[in-house]
Design goal:
Length: 83
């Protein structure tokens, strides 16, 4: 069964710093962009593997990586007619 990872509040919870979540929030804000030569197929494969559980259990670091990948993919989708 695929697990859908969702964006969480980038603020620290329970007083525990969340640098991975803060970095993901930076990407989601649109302040950082995908390089023109980035392979979006690899990003999509990574997201699919993470959501299927193929990369192991979901933790804060993996969730942040998926949030970053999704953000980069959504930025790229606006510039491409591939989908």
């Amino acid at each position: 069964m695929a697990t859908r990872m969702t964006a969480t509040d980038e603020d620290d919870t329970d007083g525990v710093p969340d640098p991975a979540g803060n970095l993901a929030a930076l990407f989601e804000s649109g302040d950082l962009e995908l390089a023109y030569d980035t392979d979006t197929d690899e990003l999509r494969e990574f997201v699919e593997a993470a959501e299927s559980g193929a990369l192991g259990p979901v933790d804060a670091e993996l969730e942040a990586k998926v949030r970053i990948a999704r953000s980069l993919l959504s930025d790229g989708d606006g510039e491409s007619a591939e989908e």
